[in-house]
Amino acid sequence: MIPHTAMVLAAGLGTRMRPLTNDRPKALVTVKGKALIDHNLDRLVAAGVKRAVVNVHAFADLLEAHVKRRTDIEIVISDERAQLMETGGGLRQARPLLGDDPIIVCNIDSVWEEWNGSAIARLAYSYNPAKSSTKLMLASLDQCLGFDGAGDFFMDDGGKLAFRDDAPSTPWAYMGVYITDPKVIDAEPLEPFSMTRVWRKLVADGRLHGAPLGGFWMHVGDPEARALAEARLAAAAPGA
Question: What is the pTM of this model?
């Protein structure tokens, strides 16, 4: 089942993207002529999501005005002007806006090619809340650019995840999209924190799972990565 609601994490300061973020939020930096947030929102619309909660902080007025021009998806603003809440705290602050059904969550700095239909739809249809509370979309390290890490997770044959921790590398990188039961955040205090804190608890309970992207991921974290993404998309076939 495709979730009705998504959350797009768009409130980051974008310090690594400077000077491109000197006059705009990272969410409004363009890749191939399209703002990063619109890359995300377009993927959500294509998957069938009807409503997106967008958190705002830096250049909040610009971002709010931009997203509210869209007519193909309902936009709800979660206001973090007073305090930046990070990936977990942002979800916690937006909790009253999210409902109790599963939601999709997207990071703003991910752009991806899809090789076999909507990756978000595949993730949603593969999600089984009886087995997992959260399911992360993962990119293979040989199918990404702009990511300079050694991977994030190990994934077993059943999709169960374990953190890389002290291992030198893993085959899988978290690429910025997941589906979750929003109630996983309910026990957390209303404060800035990383969602990793929740995921570690879920790993201990065997309730954090993963699914392959089935495409090529571009982590657009800085101007160099943006240039690489633009070059790849310019060379790609139309509609990729």
Answer: 0.94
